[in-house]
Amino acid sequence: MEIDYNLIQRAQMLLTLDHPLTQVKDILLREGYPQEQVIELMDATEEVLNYLVPPQYDEHKIGIDILHPGEKEQGRKPTVDILIDKRSGKLELITPHLPETWRVANEVRKAIKRQRYPGKYLH
C-alpha cells in the first residue's frame, strides 16, 4: 500500500517528540489520516523499532532527517542523518559524507550552545 508522505512526516515528528506509538496512532486517526494507512505505518514502525533498530537509536536520542539537494520530497523515505543525545547534546553524524549534514550539524550545535549559555550570546 502507498502511504501518504505527509502522514509519514507527521508520524515522524510525533515520535521525535517522544509520543508512544499508541498515542501517535490515536493522534493521526483524530487528524483524519486514513485508518488503513495509519495502521500499516504504525505496524511497520513498531516492527522496525523492535527488531531492526541499532542500539544507538534509543529514547534518549533525537534523529534529524535532512532533505538533500537532488532528492525529491514526494515518495522519499525518511532517513536519519544526525543523531542528538538529549542528555549530553552530543551530535553523531550518520551521513558525514554529505555537506548538508555538516551545515545542519553546525547550526544545531550553535542552537544547543545558545540554550546552555544564553547570556554569553547577548550583545
From the structure provided, what is the oligomeric state, counting identical versus distinct chains?
A: single chain
Strand content: 5-15%
Q: Within the largest sheet, what's the order of strands?
A: 1-2-3
The separation of the N and C termini measures 54 Å
Weakly predicted, low-confidence segments: 51-55
Q: Helix share of residues?
A: 40-55%
Shape: globular
Write the element-wise H/E pattern from the N-terminal end onward.
Answer: HHHEEEH
Largest sheet: 3 strands, antiparallel
Mean pLDDT: 79
Q: Helix tally? A: 4
Q: Helix/strand/pairing class, anyone?
A: mainly alpha
Could you please describe the fold and organization of this structure?
This protein has 123 residues and is mainly alpha-helical. The chain has 2 domains: 5-51, no CATH class; 61-116, no CATH class. The chain has 4 helices and 3 strands, in the order αααβββα. The chain has helices at 5-16, 21-30, 35-52, 99-116, and strands spanning 61-64, 82-85, 91-93. Strands 1-2-3 form a 3-stranded antiparallel sheet, with helices on one face. A hairpin with a 5-residue loop joins strand 2 and strand 3 (91-93). Helix 2 packs antiparallel against helix 3 (35-52). The longest helix is centred in the middle third of the chain and has 18 residues, at 35-52. It is globular, with a radius of gyration of 16 Å. It starts with a helix and ends in a 7-residue tail after the last helix. The model is unreliable at 51-55 (pLDDT under 50).
